[in-house]
Amino acid sequence: MIANKAATYFFRVGSNAMAQAGINSGDRLVVDRSIKAKNRDTVVAVHEGQFLVRRLHVSNGRVELAAESEGYPLISLESDEQLDIWGVVVGLVRKL
User: Model-level pTM?
Assistant: First the structure.
């Protein structure tokens, strides 16, 4: 699960925004910062000062962050908005 130790970290999920993708609140994600995020990747991102776990959608120069559960809005980035991708999710650890 960890290909690049120096660029990999664990991130604890704080919401159920990705529950329909199998990522639940309290899960720990294995995140690799060395992987360049591409369309449809699940990423840890910072948008407007808030950490988010979302599905990245890139199409025709447009960038969106989509939750995989109802009740969470689609985030469509405008050209003047700041988005920092903190890494691509490569694994999940769940305590039973």
Answer: 0.92
